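We were asked to recover a plausible sequence for a given structure. The inputs and outputs are reproduced exactly as logged, with field labels preserved.

PROBLEM: sequence recovery
POSITIONS: 133
GIVEN STRUCTURE:
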């Protein structure tokens, strides 16, 4: 969003990393299959916040639906982790607990990036332009 706002004043546009919803879903599947760790999911979600993805998101109803489904799936995983986390015996499975706690935190950040942050950006633009995106 900062990049988009800055573009209005100096006409410099930082395109950023292009990330498609299909890539997010593929990485999520890999995470659920325990092929990758949650850091990789978090990193890709962070990259999705770039200008090019935000503009594409705003223009595409299909992308909004795909991201909404992705966010819903992330929310389901968060709820599942929230239930599982207290059940892990930290005294016996300390490493497993730390990993699960980190995964939980990363999933919350993914949710925040792709749900709360996008909505916040859209609301800010709506207020500045007095138009609905």
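RECOVERED SEQUENCE:
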């Amino acid at each position: 969003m900062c990049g988009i706002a800055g573009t209005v004043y100096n006409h410099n546009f930082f395109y950023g990393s292009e990330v498609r919803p299909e890539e997010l879903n593929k990485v999520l599947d890999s995470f659920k299959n325990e092929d990758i760790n949650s850091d990789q999911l978090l990193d890709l979600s962070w990259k999705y916040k770039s200008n090019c993805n935000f503009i594409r998101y705003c223009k595409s109803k299909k992308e909004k639906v795909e991201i909404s489904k992705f966010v819903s799936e992330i929310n389901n995983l968060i709820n599942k982790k929230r239930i599982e986390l207290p059940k892990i015996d930290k005294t016996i499975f300390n490493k497993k607990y730390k990993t699960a706690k980190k995964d939980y935190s990363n999933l919350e950040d993914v949710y925040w990036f792709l749900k709360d942050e996008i909505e916040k950006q859209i609301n800010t633009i709506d207020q500045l332009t007095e138009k609905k995106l």
